[in-house]
Amino acid sequence: MIAQAVLRRPPALIAVMCLAEVCAMTGFAAYWSLLPVLQPAWGMSNASAGWLSGAFFGGYVLAVPFLTAMTDRVDARHVFVLGALLSTGALVGLAFLATGFWSALPWRVIAGAGLAGIYMPGLKVLTDRLPQAPQARAVAFYTACFSVGTAASYALTGGALEWFGWRGAFLLVAAGPVLGIVALVTLVAAREPEAAAEERRHVLDFRPVLRSRETMGYVMAYAGHGAELFAMRSWIVPFLVFCLGSGAAFELDATLFATAVSLVAVVSSIGGAELALRIGRVRLITWAMLTTFAISAAVGFSSPLPFAAVVVLCLVYSAAIQADSAALTAGAVAASPVGHRGATLAVHSTLGFGGSLFAPALVGAVLDLAAPLGGQVAWGFAFLSMGSMALLGYVLFLLQRRRLVGGPPPP
Q1: What is the pTM of this model?
Q2: Where are the domains of the chain?
Q3: Among the CATH numbers 3.30.530.20, 1.20.1250.20, 3.40.50.1000, 1.20.1440.230, which is that of 2-190+209-405?
Q4: pLDDT tens digits for the chain (411 residues)?
Q5: Which of 405, 409, 411, 396 is closest to 217 using CA atoms?
Q6: How far apart are the first and last CA of the chain?
């Protein structure tokens, strides 16, 4: 049986789960890719566009505690399938029923709930079926493929916009999650979750995770990381359109450059995970989170530069943001209480993506408030606000480690 053969070969299992993840995420960046078209068509301000982006993460945060924690009790494959079906339904709803902010809002929330059933439950499918030794690298590849899925979503949506319009683009990428279900069901064998070391209470009992200070340190850092990452991905296409100049002819070019920005994050995430194995997770996280703050200011105020220079800076910024992504998630998984890995990933995702609910709207509000100063200055402050999110996450990370060791954190 193919599924059993895949189960016996860790590299094949990792490849299958990465493929299923990428397919299921084809609609992830669709709204962001189409934002230069949707914003005027739906009559939205920058703040409103940001809130609609954040609504996605609102749906994620509402659903992820239950859906991910359930993977401690049922095979995580079932949760992944549910998430993929929700994602497809949300994209179809946006294609046929969305005409403005309020009509699109519920579908964005449902789309976020779909991702909640895909991303961390998919990681749980993988880690439940792997021995301990290859898990750190498996987590690195799987989390890196989040950026592959994002890049594929940018590229597919941007290309479909040129041919089919924004409604057709939503419909095209709605097929991806269905393909993800097919890959998962046919190539990954069923397996019961790990038994808990202590008695489990209700599915939303996260106290064993919250009591683990080491785990919560990684979770807090991930919260700042996620807020910065998704604020950047929410606004990167409008920023590049601004740098290119107004006009529909530039929209596809901006989307393709955003695709490249997402792809460079793949190499950075895997490379960062390997570097963390050599120099330690704490050192890697410190370097990455402080560096992104500095780079965010350079990117934001770069719009007067030649467009090639802007793209290079965006690529560097994306690489810096993603450098600690796998290390943060692998750290949380490694520190998770026995039998509560699903609950750990639930808390990790809830807080990690919780900041993303407000981050895109915050950046949009900064753009609106700074608009009288001119577009170049407004975008500078907008990107500086993104970098500040990572800086706050790092401060919270240090505070948790100080509590863990009872003194100043180690270097």
Answers
A1: 0.73
A2: 2-190+209-405
A3: 1.20.1250.20
A4: 676 766 778 888 899 999 999 999 999 989 988 988 999 999 988 888 888 988 898 898 889 888 887 888 888 899 999 999 999 999 999 999 999 999 999 999 999 999 999 998 999 898 888 776 777 778 888 988 888 898 889 889 988 988 889 999 999 999 999 999 999 999 988 877 665 545 555 556 677 777 777 888 888 888 999 899 888 878 887 888 888 774 434 444 566 776 777 778 778 888 888 888 788 888 888 888 899 999 998 999 998 988 889 888 988 998 899 888 888 887 887 777 766 777 788 888 788 777 777 888 889 899 999 988 888 899 999 999 999 998 998 998 888 777 655 444 444
A5: 396
A6: 49
